[in-house]
Amino acid sequence: MLKINSIKLIRISFPTLLFIIIVSLSSCKVSKTKDITYMKEGFSDNLPEKHLNIFSPKKSETLKPVFIYIHGGSWDSGKKELYNFFGKRLARKEMVAVIIDYPLSPEYIISDMTMATAQAVKWLTENIEKYGGDPSQIYVSGHSAGGHLAALLSTKDEYFEALDIKNPIKGAILIDAAGLDMYTFLKKKSYPAGSSYLKTFTNDPEIWKENSPIYHIDKNDPPLLIMMGEKTLPGILSSTERFLIEYKKIVPEPNYHLQKGKKHIPMILQFYNSNNKTYDWIETFISKNNE
Asked: What pLDDT does 210 receive?
């Protein structure tokens, strides 16, 4: 008996097909420029050469807000390439997204990292218009250790003053930020000398305090959008709660979102979903801040 092999047809509904087409087309609308040098070897005496990636909407007729993302990794790990997905999604939402690298511990300490990120911001204010970004609409963001650096740059002008510019940050988006009160955290933990956090923040409590954003809050700071996971790390929970107490003295009703059930890593992984509500929070924050 002759056997005929059956062919199974996969039926795709029209809404599903439309979604596939939209996604494929949207992936073509982003212009990516990789490994741009924003800091040369020997900057500020001892810093290494560092780079950034830029994601821009294609064929845009107007300059777009600039979203600078600083990666996490406990100040001693991480790289910009891991967050290209974030840059692409932001660019599809009509922003110019920038993902930066910065010097890491143990070779470099916290002041080196902050100086490098300040230099990245300065470089972008001077060059981002060539990539479709508006230098008057600079926003910084970060997750975990990157959130700490974004907060520190936003509340402490010392690093920009060292670069002979006025702080150009128009707003900051903190995503489960670590280290908002590193002074209290390290005092309570009493880590032995040589521990990973002390390699970053040194053994000097004054340096812990100088690099804790909570001690630099004032009325001149740019506005903050703060997101925290309900089930994040205990140190982040406690330092963010203390930070909010002080911040509310300046901003009685902060733009703060406690995300139910979210742990620390999922707070950044959620951005894989382009329809995640956090993108709406970011777009609303930027839009209102530019009115």
From this structure: 98
